[in-house]
Amino acid sequence: MDRIDNKYGIHLTCNTWNHRNADSQITSRHATENKVIAQMKIFFYDHSTLQLPQGHHFPSQKYSMLLDEIRNQKILGEHELIQSIPATRDEVIVAHTKEYFDGIITGTIDPKIMRQIGLPWSKDLVERSLASVGGSLCAANEALVSGFSGNLGGGTHHAMADQGMGYCVFNDLAVVILNFLRLKKILRTAIIDLDVHQGNGNAAILGSHPEVFTFSMQGQKNYPYRKVPSTLDINLPDDTGDKAYLEHLITVLPKVFDFNPDIIFYLAGVDPLKEDRLGRLSLTMSGLGERDWLVLEQCQRHSIPVCLVMGGGYAVPIELTVQAHVQTYKIAKEVYQN
Ligand SMILES: [Zn+2]
Question: How close is the Cα of 163 to the center of ligand 1, in Å?
Fold first, then answer.
């Protein structure tokens, strides 16, 4: 367990590897090993906080807080922060039914489905949902060119083809992956989903695609209560804690790399944090950092491009969630720029 006990002590060989309209393709992967990413390109959606009814549990302010913190702490320079391009209908309906997409866009969606999403319909919600998927499309393109990119949003892994749920309207990773496979930008891919909730939407939409490896590690007793089997699921008991969590991760990661993915989508939800309202695994901030380091360093070591998406975080106070996401980007900087 040297890797866990010896934080940042791992000797690194920096491999690395450009935006949605970039000429990205998998052949760029091995040509760019042993380089450092001089300038990251990270995608965001810079609008005011989504207005929700008073008392609503979803911490929509976390997105703007994260962007503010990343700027204030100078984790990323202005030149590294790029506004997302919203996803188009043609892109989204590769993973979602036309009926569901059009219902969301026009506001004619069944109120029962909106209740399952858990957010009230608004034009702002529609814009944000499209920008979130678009950010992941942009980041994935960039990752194929440079080796690493991220979306300060996305990771909406509960959304199914014909309905959203659990604060997820559209499934960004399913949209990206199915579009990229269709365009032959990639031939195989893997998702490492470490949000504390199971990636049931990813598993449901992508489950019939043998070229997609979905790995999801979550709290067994957590939402969703009816889980859809991933390629590989690890269900953890309450209060798992750092050590056991990281041991599971170290044991399983080789299986992801053995799949030889062209790109890895890292869904780095920070809700396993012990202060999280919805998390049950009792990870410390340091443990989450070790987790992020382990995943990113291993991906880099295997010369596999990474597209990082946010996933969930509902800590009390919400500043802890923001701090955990900031930490992920600090670690990405260390892995890819040192
Ligand atoms: Zn979650």
Answer: 18
State how far the Cα of 171 lies from the Cα of 134, in Å rounded to an integer.
11
Tokens of 258: 């053995």
pTM: 0.91
User: Predicted confidence band at 85 (pLDDT cuts at 50, 70, 90)?
Assistant: very high
CA of 21 to the centre of ligand 1 (A): 30
Ligand 1: distance of its center to the CA of 293 in Å?
20
Ordered by start, the domain boundaries in the chain are 39-337
Cis peptide before 229, with omega less than 30 degrees from 0? no
Does 224 sit behind a cis peptide bond, omega within 30 degrees of 0 on the bond before it? Answer: yes
Q: Which CATH architecture has domain 39-337?
A: 3-Layer(aba) Sandwich (3.40)
Kindly report, residue by residue over 311-325, the tens digit of the pLDDT. 999 999 999 999 999
Q: What is the pLDDT of residue 31?
A: 38
